């Protein structure tokens, strides 16, 4: 048991209040301390500093808390505890390479430099030797919080970058690279499982004319509305990407040829059936679609590039046969002849 000197207890019973502000997700702390009085004091301080506290009296309970997905990222661990000591807890925390970083402050009655080194080498970020000043604890906790906040900001920035790298900024759809990655994954899954797969290449008819007549801002608004309609008219597990300017690639996992044809026709209708409302008025828009699909268990395996090529050839056929229609590639050959005008 760690005895707290009376003068220290007096000083720490009424610590300075922490900076205000609402508790963020990171404002949680695990305190593991086997001295009940000291644990109670620590708990009281951290609550004053706007922390949500999980308090435990031994190392085993601490380890149980730390393994949870939503465990506090800040841990105040006593070195000497029954069950599992703070050093062993540090080792276990660091041996897990998943999840967010945990900032560990070790509390110790030991002040031998070799012990301090052992604590830091086991994975503690910082340590305090008992008895300590409450303001010093608060200052060190703020340092830990800064590091955790910085880490959260980095993770957030990384997620933003990943999103930006894979998405088209105008429509929010997967961009060309990302939708081709999706298709590659589905093709490779099909090669393992033999599942059906449908691929649609869709193109807004005479889109250049919309841009030329009404300007690019109206063209952008049309692209966004077409995107919105496509997105609500596919199944939740279908994937829509912007392949090029006004071209969309739609991947239909597990969708056999008849159902893929129905899906393509539904997409055609959702654009053609209702004019698009823009700030300069209603604009009629139509979509031509080329479909390539493989039946479940079909022996022939197409690679990603071939799927795209077949769908593209079928799209050309739809264009050459008058637009606002769906054409289907059959086997290795697209139905219809290749049109030269791809407008
Ligand atoms: Mg202890």
What does this structure look like?
The structure is a single chain. The protein has 343 residues and is α/β, with parallel strands linked by helices. It folds into two domains: 159 residues, Rossmann fold (3-Layer(aba) Sandwich); 159 residues, Reverse transcriptase/Diguanylate cyclase domain (Alpha-Beta Plaits, 2-Layer Sandwich), CATH 3.30.70.270. Helix content is 46%, strand content 19%. It is built from eleven helices and 13 strands. A six-stranded mixed sheet has the order 7-8-6-11-12-13. Helix 3 packs parallel to helix 4 and helix 8 packs across helix 9. The longest helix has 33 residues. It is elongated and about 85 Å long. The N and C termini lie far apart (82 Å). It binds magnesium ion (MG).
Quick take:
The protein is 46% helix and 19% strand. With 343 residues, the protein is α/β, with parallel strands linked by helices. Bound molecules: magnesium ion (MG).
Low-confidence stretches: 1-24, 332-342
Give the overall shape. elongated
- State the major sheet: 6 strands, mixed
Our count of helices gives 11
Name the structural class: alpha/beta
Question: How many separate domains make up the residues?
Answer: 2
Q: Under the CATH scheme, which class of the largest domain?
A: Alpha Beta
Radius of gyration: 31 Å
Number of DSSP strand runs? 13
Beta-strand content: 15-25%
Helix content: 40-55%
CATH topology of the largest domain: Rossmann fold
Instruction: Supply the CATH architecture of the largest domain.
Output: 3-Layer(aba) Sandwich
Q: What bound compounds does this protein have? A: magnesium ion
Overall mean pLDDT score?
A: 88
